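For reproducibility, we list the full input for the FE2/S2 (inorganic) cluster complex.
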Amino acid sequence: MKTIGEIISKYRDRSDLIDLLSEVQEEYGYLSEDNMRIIEQSLDIPLVDIYGVATFYSSFKLNPAGRHIIRVCKGTACHVKKADMIEGVLDDLLGLRDKQTTEDGRFTLELVNCIGACAKAPNIMIDDKVYGELTKEKAERIIKEFTGQ
Ligand code: FES
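The corresponding predicted structure, in tokenized form, follows.
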């Protein structure tokens, strides 16, 4: 694993910030406050600017991801077939309450635009497997399989 210092040494200034943050996230899985403070000091970029970039792009994560990533498709085909309802069911089942990752670190919920399975909308993807034609009952069954309840 590369140290944060090794990563930063490849970049010069704020014009490299997106690439730098991308590499830090690739290496560490997310952008920790500690690492952002080291970037602030090393490249003399105000922390507020680093946070600004990190929160503007949805691909950046400010917290570690859970062991399983659940991607809820909110693309047009899935939206029309009630993806909002599926998102609500998953929020309730996982007890997320506006958080992205469950307390036990087991699941992270992400919203995505299309996962390329529109014919089976509404869809979710858990890790690398797509679950299509979701209903409330089907979503509950799938989550119960993962949680063993
Ligand atoms: S819009 Fe959901 S899979 Fe394409």
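The chain has seven helices and four strands. Strands lie at 68-73, 107-112, 124-126, 129-131. Both points were considered when choosing residues for closer inspection.
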